[in-house]
Amino acid sequence: MLAGKVALVTGSTSGIGLEVIRALAGAGANVAMHGLGDPAKLTDMCHKIASDAGVKAIYAPADLKKPAEIRSMVKHTADTFGSKLDILVNNAGIQFVSPVVDFPEDKWDDVIAVCLSSAFHTSKAALPYMMAGGWGRIINTGSMHALVASPYKSAYNAAKHGILGFTKTLALEVAQKNITCNAICPGVCLTDLVKNQVEGLAKARGVPPETVIDNELLAFQPTKRFVDARDIAALVLHLCGPNSSSFTGASHSIDGGWTAR
Which residues form a coiled coil (predicted)? Predict the structure, then answer.
């Protein structure tokens, strides 16, 4: 379905991003993996993805708090695959849990930089390649916290709400260029980020992690189970597929019914 396409997925060394990059590779796209970890081990992961799917895969590191490194990552990806970049999935995210009155200012800046500003910088750098190729798909990971809020997550809520505004604006700007921009809004998925969030909330509340999962994380998710990252990857594939050209400027919830309330 995506043979010959080139995809860059930020935050794709684990969790949702890793499932997304595997799905894109499985559909025939050459892929660039981004994220934290041992470069040698991540390069080995890329080799396995490439071997399993019969595509090319590279590791493209960058500190998403640094715009210059983001631009270098995008250029490196495009240069590796013949000055080509068709699909950008802005998935990287970090979290910090604290009441506003105690929220460290540097943590606020970091969350906004990684969860919101990096999507602007990657998209700006990727758009010229998409315009040159006459086709593009930009997908931003929003979270249900792009639609509703939870206490103690002010920076994350602000960043994810901002992602929706950015998504809509960019979609309008490129609407006649055969480029779409959408946001996906997952519910709670048991990623490393969420595991760290559980620990933070448990500490803040003075309760066991299991209590946080049952009484807080899944309390508003009617299915009472974590969203499967493979379902999220399937949604990304749909938004990149052959019948996706009219899906743009929209938020797509995949949250176990969280925002149906």
Answer: none
